[in-house]
Write a structure and sequence with these properties.
This protein is α/β, with parallel strands linked by helices. It has one domain: Rossmann fold, CATH 3.40.50.1390. The protein has four helices and four strands, in the order βαβαβαβα. It has helices at 28-44, 65-73, 93-105, 122-131, and strands at 16-22, 48-55, 79-84, 109-112. It has a four-stranded parallel β-sheet with strand order 2-1-3-4, with helices on both faces. The chain is globular.
Length: 134
C-alpha cells in the first residue's frame, strides 16, 4: 500500500494573489488589521497571499510606488488576482477606475473582500449591529 497522504491532507497551494492597501492615516495596528483581513480571506477561500503592497500617500497619481510594484508582480507567472479590503483602497473614483483597468488588463481578477453590494442576509446583520446585537 502507498504511504503517501490523501490529497485532502497534502499541503497544496491555492491560486496566487497579491494584496493592495492604501493606508493614509491610522496606526500600525490598523494596517496590521487590514493585512490580517486579507490573510483570513485567503485562508478561507484557499488562496495563497504572496505579498501585500501598501501606498501611504494620497492617490493623486495613478501610478503610486506600491501600485507600480503591484503591477510588476502581476507579470509573474500563475498570478490569479489582486485582493483589496474594499474598492476605496484603489483611490478616489477617477483613480480607482484607471487602476481597475490596469489590473484587469494584466488578465488577473480583482477580488474585493467587502463589496459595496449587499449580499443575501447582510441587511439583517447590519440591522442587528445597529441595534447593538451580535
Amino acid at each position: 500500500m502507498d504511504d503517501e497522504p490523501l490529497t485532502e491532507r497534502r499541503s497544496v497551494t491555492g491560486p496566487r494573489v497579491f494584496g493592495y492597501l492604501r493606508h493614509l492615516t491610522g496606526s500600525t495596528a490598523r494596517h496590521t488589521a487590514l493585512a490580517d483581513c486579507l490573510t483570513e480571506y485567503c485562508h478561507s477561500h484557499e488562496l495563497t497571499l504572496c505579498g501585500v503592497f501598501t501606498d501611504r500617500e494620497p492617490a493623486i497619481a495613478i501610478r503610486a510606488p506600491a501600485f507600480v510594484g503591484l503591477l510588476d508582480a502581476l507579470q509573474l507567472p500563475d498570478v490569479y488576482g489582486v485582493l483589496v479590503p474594499a474598492l476605496g483602497h484603489l483611490g478616489p473614483r477617477h483613480v480607482a477606475a484607471e487602476r481597475k483597468r490596469l489590473i484587469t488588463a494584466t488578465g488577473v481578477r480583482l477580488i474585493v473582500v467587502r463589496s459595496a453590494k449587499p449580499t443575501a442576509g447582510s441587511e439583517h446583520l447590519v440591522r442587528l449591529q445597529l441595534k447593538g446585537g451580535t
